[in-house]
Design brief:
This protein is mainly α and 253 residues long. The protein has ten helices and no strands.
Length: 253
C-alpha cells in the first residue's frame, strides 16, 4: 500500500472514530489498530492518534455546547482536572517507552473493549441507584475519579468517554444528554493537553496525523449533529468486536 492509500485509510478511520466518539465512545479502538496495521510502531501510533483525534473531540464538544448551559462551575473544574490528568498520563507514556507500551497494548485494547461492552450495564446500574435514592457526595468529589480517568486517557485513551460518563452519571444528578456534553469537553481537555506534550516530546507521523485530524473533525461534527437521532448500540457492538479482534491479534502476535 502506497503512502497516499495509507493516508486515505487513516483519514477514513479517523472520520469513523469521530462519529463513534460523539455517539458511543471508543473511537480509538478503530484508529489505533488501523495505524499499527499500517506498520506504524505502537507508541508512535498512540501519540499520532491522540493528536489526530483532538479536532474530532473539539467538533463534538462545539456542537453539543448548548447542553453545557448552567454547568459553568462543573465545566471549569472538570476540564482543568482533565487537562492536568491528561498531561500526567502523557508523561507516563513517554516515561514507559515503546517496549513497555507495546507489551501493554493487548491488555489496554482488551480493557477498553470490555469497558465499552459494559457501558449499557453501567448505565442501567446508575439509573437503578438513582431510583433507589442512593446518597450523593459533594459534586466537587467528582474531580478525583475524573483525574484518574484522565491519566488513563493521556496514556492510551481507548473508551475514555465511557469511563468519564460513568463517573459523571454516578456522582452528578443531571440528564444524560447534559452529562454527555460535559464528558465531551473533559475528553477534549484530556486529549488536547496530552497532544500538546506529544507535539513537543514524542515521535509523531505528521502526514498521517494531519489527514486524520481532518477526518476526525468531520466525523466528530457529524456525530454531534446526529447524536440525538442515532441509536449507539449498533455502533458500540461493532467497535467492541473490532477492539476484541485487535486485542486477540496482539496477544498472539
Amino acid at each position: 500500500m502506497g503512502p497516499a492509500s495509507q493516508i486515505a485509510l487513516a483519514a477514513a478511520a479517523a472520520f469513523a472514530a469521530g462519529i463513534v466518539n460523539a455517539l458511543a465512545g471508543g473511537g480509538t479502538l478503530i484508529t489505533f489498530p488501523t495505524l499499527t496495521a499500517l506498520g506504524i510502531p505502537a507508541l508512535t501510533a498512540n501519540t499520532t492518534n491522540t493528536i489526530a483525534l483532538v479536532p474530532g473531540y473539539f467538533g463534538g464538544s462545539f456542537v453539543q455546547r448548548g447542553d453545557l448551559s448552567g454547568q459553568r462551575q462543573r465545566f471549569m473544574l472538570l476540564t482543568a482536572t482533565g487537562a492536568i490528568g491528561g498531561l500526567a498520563g502523557g508523561l507516563l507514556l513517554l516515561w514507559s517507552g515503546e517496549r513497555l507500551f507495546r507489551q501493554l497494548t493487548p491488555w489496554l485494547l482488551l480493557f477498553a473493549s470490555l469497558l465499552l461492552a459494559a457501558q449499557g450495564w453501567i448505565r442501567r446500574r446508575v439509573l437503578e441507584r438513582r431510583r433507589n435514592g442512593a446518597p450523593r457526595k459533594s459534586e466537587a468529589w467528582v474531580a478525583v475519579p475524573v483525574f484518574f480517568a484522565a491519566i488513563y486517557g493521556g496514556y492510551f485513551g481507548g473508551a475514555l468517554g465511557v469511563v468519564v460518563l460513568a463517573v459523571l452519571a454516578v456522582m452528578l444528578d443531571d440528564p444524560l444528554p447534559r452529562l454527555n456534553a460535559l464528558k465531551q469537553s473533559i475528553s477534549f481537555a484530556v486529549n488536547a493537553t496530552a497532544a500538546l506534550l506529544f507535539v513537543v516530546k514524542a515521535p509523531v507521523d505528521w502526514p498521517i496525523a494531519g489527514a486524520m485530524a481532518v477526518g476526525a473533525l468531520a466525523g466528530g461534527t457529524a456525530g454531534g449533529r446526529i447524536a440525538s437521532r442515532v441509536k449507539p448500540e449498533v455502533l458500540r457492538a461493532v467497535v467492541v468486536v473490532a477492539g476484541l479482534t485487535a486485542a486477540g491479534f496482539y496477544f498472539v502476535k
